[in-house]
Amino acid sequence: MESPVVRVGVIGGGFVGAALVQLLCDPTRSEALVDAATATVELVGVAVRDVAKPRPGIGLGLLTTDVDALIASDLDVLVEVAGGIEPARSYVESALKRGISVVTANKALMAESGTQLAQLAHEHGADLFYEAAVGGAIPILRALRSSLAGERITRVMGIVNGTTNYILTKMTTEGSDYGEALREAQALGYAEADPSADVEAFDAAAKVQILSTLAFGTRLGGEEIAREGITGVRIVDVDFAARMGYVIKLVGVAERVGETGISRRVHPAMIPVGHPLASVNGAMNAVFVEGVKSGPLMWLGQGAGGESTATAVLGDVLDAARNRISGRHDVPFTGDRSLHYVPASELSSPFYLSVDVLDRPGVLAEVASVFGRHDVSIQSMDQSGFGDEARLAFLTHEALSADVEATVKELIALESVESVGACIRVIDEGVT
Ligand SMILES: NC(=O)c1ccc[n+]([C@@H]2O[C@H](COP(=O)([O-])OP(=O)(O)OC[C@H]3O[C@@H](n4cnc5c(N)ncnc54)[C@H](OP(=O)(O)O)[C@@H]3O)[C@@H](O)[C@H]2O)c1
Prior knowledge:
- By secondary structure, the chain is of the alpha/beta class.
- It folds into three domains: 5-136 and 306-326, 3-Layer(aba) Sandwich (Rossmann fold); 140-302, Dihydrodipicolinate Reductase, domain 2 (2-Layer Sandwich), CATH 3.30.360.10; 344-426, ACT domain (Alpha-Beta Plaits, 2-Layer Sandwich), CATH 3.30.70.260.
- It is built from 14 helices and 19 strands.
- The protein has helices at 15-25, 30-37, 67-71, 88-97, 107-123, 140-147, 162-174, 178-187, 196-199, 202-216, 235-243, 306-326, 363-373, 401-413; strands spanning 5-11, 40-47, 63-64, 77-80, 101-104, 128-129, 153-159, 226-227, 246-257, 261-272, 284-291, 295-302, 340-341, 348-349, 351-357, 378-384, 391-396, 399-400, 417-426.
- Strands 7, 8, 9, 10, 11, 12, 13, 15, 16, 17 and 19 form an eleven-stranded mixed β-sheet that branches. Strands 3-2-1-4-5-6 form a six-stranded parallel β-sheet, with helices on both faces.
- Helix 5 (107-123) runs parallel beside helix 10, helix 6 (140-147) runs parallel beside helix 10 (202-216) and helix 7 crosses helix 8 (178-187).
- It is elongated, with a radius of gyration of 24 Å.
- The model has no long low-confidence stretch (mean pLDDT 93).
């Protein structure tokens, strides 16, 4: 029997779009695709800005610059892999209003407008899938949405930005300083010429928004997320961390706080070397999920790259195609919206602080007394350097962030303290 046809249009013929076209047009896969989609997936067109650009693997007859005409061409599924907020959002809205299912890899768009777009999809009987928006090929969103839908998740913590993980890994394993490691990441194509979206953690924050929605049912867009990037991480702190049994990673965290609170944040963290996230190196991504009954779970894989990301996009296309054929669509995920946002200053954890001091007698006692005055108890202390290079590193017991902030403020005001070089949260729960 002839299989039904599902018509797919793609906006974007860059890294992800071109790799997706290759997967869709690969004759050795066509049977498998028909089986998975329960339909023949027909690629109708690929919209780009410039059709004259050479694009090996995409037939000239498929290319167009007329996105509106592509959307109007009786599509079943629109794939948005162009990126950015506008005009991507307008195109996605236009497709959803026509009842066309949308697959996107666009984390920025989903973090900003995901809830409204999901609602629009639902109203018009369409799907909105965005697996590739977090962790590239890692199927974490589907796992949260389906396999763990009934679990009470307590925390989602991930290394969700390959560029920053590459830079921090270089610093840890080769002793490169931040600038050297960034330049190498740029030379290898891991980091953009303007790296701020990655190193200032905007990209990771968008992914934490998306993970938080699926894990806890919080709304996408406009909600607070504390964000600190890696530009302040110094090689001296990476070395201290290693001596104390930790590695520094940029982590995105969404976690329950008590019964009714939620914390969402991205920041450098000291992770014990025995924690599964500590050994996630280079440009790899990993997402670590803790549930009340499931216990700890972890997904690891390529967080970026056209080909690996396209596999996640293709999975979504096949899901959307199957739904088209069966005449159903997924209901937007809703969860525990009653959770209130808890600012990072109200959280407790151990902290690492490094303090650049004048090399003279009595300084240690003076510095330690400041910790004591703010109820921050010291777990261990290390010191390095002499003269201008004298530096003290402290690991505290669990302490309230606000108390640690007050400690830092008072330390900076001391005449014997030149600067507080780092104040980094420690992830210290053992994982069994
Ligand atoms: N690359 C990855 O590893 C990765 C991983 C996960 C998620 N993503 C996400 O996937 C999306 C695409 O990423 P990418 O790396 O493939 O980007 P890219 O290489 O820059 O490709 C973007 C494509 O979109 C086209 N385009 C941009 N604006 C357009 C417009 N207004 N109308 C028509 N076409 C337009 C561009 O056309 P021209 O070629 O003519 O300029 C280009 O072909 C982004 O949202 C990104 O965040 C990427």
